[in-house]
Amino acid sequence: MHSGLCLRVLILAALTVPIRAAQPAQETFTLTVPDGPTSTLSGSSVSLLCQVSPLINAEPLEVRWYRSSNFHSPALLYKDHKIQEASVDPRYRGRVSLTGGLERGNVSLTLERVTVEDRGEYVCQVTSEQWYEKASVFLTVNVTGSEPVLSVAKARGGGGQVNVICSSDGWSPQPTLTWRNKEGTEIRNGREVLNTSDPQGLVSVSSWLLCAPSDSDWLACTVSLSEEVKREGRILPHIYTAPTAVPGVSKEAFIVTLVLLILSLVIICALCSVILCKRRGSMWSSFKKSRNRSDQTELGQRPADQTELGQGPAGKCFILISR
């Protein structure tokens, strides 16, 4: 009987040892986050990944997402099995959630309607009663700038060269500007690039390229954040350096020809004015003649009237009409 009781005690001890040995392993954990930055477009949604390892149920734990310098006003705070609204940064209210699955140890943060101000470092901190761990995730917000505007200016010193200027603004982060010729070959020599930022952190980029118009039929200026996010403009530099006079014609001959052309236009306009005035005069004379004829016709229809032509004092002529 004693041997049977001892055997039962040994069996129970063998069953409970693995459980007690495994329990301390769950009291500590680590966090797994992406190695590089997480990128997204302005106005879209993004998930900042954070995974508890080993895979344990994170529902009883506290999850805090905050900016690197704003611990007490986090973007999201999960505690006591629910998301806490108090003391949360108002800029993130209604735009953040935990959608990874806490029961599987996924404490990733989903951020909606991303703006340029959302970029930067975010800290994922998970806390239990015995342990806590934190890790950082970097968010970059890509903003596509304006179409490149290209123009041409004469280079100092002449020599047939010109400055081709390319500018574009409203980018985030800082873009890459590339010049290419018609063959698609990148042009690196003779170019300068300048980047400036506005108060919102958006970058404007400008570049000057010194070239001879005969080197290429056209030039392309490409401003890009990646192969998928880019804008391009093209220009024909030789159009802006075309000669102003016809080859083989001297400057004096060109001026004389221009003056003669202007005089010819003036004479033609004067002749047209004279012809128009004559036509108006003939039309007025015809109108007066027809009017006089109608008046005479009215006088001829009055038989009782007698008309006499006399000469008054001072040799003035007068008409006597009697009935």
Automatic annotation (TrEMBL):
Cell compartments where the protein resides: Membrane
SUPFAM superfamilies: Immunoglobulin
Classification lineage: Eukaryota, Metazoa, Chordata, Craniata, Vertebrata
Matching PANTHER family: BG-LIKE ANTIGEN 1-RELATED, BUTYROPHILIN
Signal peptide: 1-21
Keywords: Immunoglobulin domain, Membrane, Signal, Transmembrane, Transmembrane helix
Organism name: Hucho hucho
UniProt GO molecular function: signaling receptor binding
Top-level taxon: Eukaryota
Record-level GO BP terms: regulation of cytokine production; T cell receptor signaling pathway
InterPro entries documented for this protein: BTN3A2-like_Ig-C, Ig-like_dom, Ig-like_dom_sf, Ig-like_fold, Ig_sub, Ig_sub2, Ig_V-set, IgSF_BTN/MOG
Predominant location category: membrane
Record Gene3D superfamilies: Immunoglobulins
Listed transmembrane segments: 253-277
Domain Ig-like: 24-144, 148-237
Protein name: Ig-like domain-containing protein
Cellular component terms (Gene Ontology): external side of plasma membrane
